[in-house]
TrEMBL record:
Enzyme Commission (EC) number: 3.5.3.12
PANTHER family for the chain: AGMATINE DEIMINASE-RELATED
The name this protein goes by in its record: Agmatine deiminase
Pfam family, one: PAD_porph
Species this protein is from: Pandoraea terrigena
Major enzyme class: hydrolase
UniProt KW keywords: Hydrolase
Gene3D superfamilies registered for this protein in UniProt: L-arginine/glycine Amidinotransferase, Chain A
GO MF terms, alphabetically ordered: agmatine deiminase activity; protein-arginine deiminase activity
Highest taxon above the source species: Bacteria
Entry's Gene Ontology BP terms: putrescine biosynthetic process
Amino acid sequence: MTPPHRPPVATDAQAVGRWRMPPEWHPHAACWMAWPSHTVMSGARRHEVVGELERMARAIAHFEPLHVAVDPHHLDEARRCLPESATLHPMPVEDHWMRDTGPTFVLDDAQTLHALRWNFNGWGHKIRPMPDADPRLAQRVALSLDIDTTSMPIVGEGGSWHVDGEGTLIVTQTSILNPNRNPGLTRREAEDVFRHWLGVTHVVWLPGSRLDTITDGHVDGIASFVRPGVLLATGADGNDEWAREAKENLRALRLARDARGRHFDIGLLPCVDFDVLPAAVADDPDFAPEYVNFYLPNRGVVMASFGDPAADAQARDIVQQAFPDRHIAQMPLRGIARRGGGIHCCTQQQPATISL
């Protein structure tokens, strides 16, 4: 029996024309980050992660205004670490994954900024007990900007999809069509939500990952748009389970077409050689060395290095060739990568309200 069709509920927001999520290379008014609390991590692990967040924030602030959500208990620490130009917003915060806990910003045809809340549930109830702060972070960020916000009719995270600005959205099945987030949700129902709220016309579904026990295979660890029709993707060396999953995602990308009927031009980023990394890093089951998990501030690219000199240099060269007009800022990332994420996961772009 086919379940009843659920429309994309439009609750408390009215658009002039259509809502649309601009691509990440659309000019940014600002970047948003979150400062982690001591309840998330402490000791040496916290020191390492906070140091990486500091370097990330300073790199981004070189390109565009930076806003950081900070729990009031950690304001002094954040002020010491963050650039003076950063705007700090005191509010309850648990973790630093702003991409997933913060809002997705969209514009309507009148260039009105609006925030979407994706009902964060700890990546499928993996956090127990679930803290109160992060599920409400998207709404608090929107309130700090004095803009409207709407709760989506499905559960999701901002790292689950990418858009190209020309109607294409790439998303993973394992993150959205997962019983731990949206039991019983069909592709059609999810696509209706994406079409209505993100302004897309065509959805490319990737298999995602069954091995990723944190995010269930977010797309920002698999591929990223360079521009419409062009992608950078994580390579698939070897024949272990992770490589086989990567190959399945690459196969789906190569078979797919975008909203304008084009096959994707896909550049492959290297895989890290785990043998050249310290054992504590290489053996960490949550370590996610994904060069594709970069952030695109105005006129720049902020990307990671992981300690494999050859792969780090090769990845930088490939990214520079993909973005010849942008300045590349590459920074060491091990603490955050050992928590299963990357630079894109820690950031959320606020689009500028200009004509597309």
